[in-house]
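Case study 2.
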Amino acid sequence: MADNQFLICDCPHCAGSIEYPAEGGGMVVPCPHCEASMSLPVPFAPETPEEEASVAPAGKSRSWTSWIIGLVAVAAAAGVFIVWPQFKPPPRPVTARPPPARTNAPPPAHTVLTNLPEGLTVSEVLMEKAPAGTLVYVVGAVKNESTRQRFGVKVELDLFDNKNTKIGVATDYQPVIEPQAEWRFRALVLDAKAASARLAALKEEQ
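Prediction:
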């Protein structure tokens, strides 16, 4: 479980960054940021040698086809760019939501991390169940106490069952944290046996 591949996508509603396990591709989940329903993209599987051999003779045809499809895509994108402002949907009304449910499992004993990037601090992490449905998130906050922007910040969280046995990993990602700003992360948990979590690592792009 700890070696799972994680993917990153943007929410089509609020453009927030979402990081999720590859096996979650195709699932319809609420966005951790705006809670609008969205489908997690499915990763593309690489072509097998047999598939590559079967299409090799048609290489020139595929090249022309790709060129034509590219022109059509550019034209369509230009049309959408021109027409889209006229059809922009009205903002969704803000409605009151019930407070999220917190799990009561005791956190596992662990050593507090001391090698955090300078200027970044992390709050306590908690398990949170979505108001509707069975999805669970690990939530917390990363504070940028420095005077510069921090780029590509990623939290990695170990997941534990009721016996405090590690069963997996959850992650979340933020492209930019402004100086003196706080990022409230929500890492999606797909394993139903997860009862508690702890911070395993906090990383940033150099």
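The longest strand covers residues 166-177.
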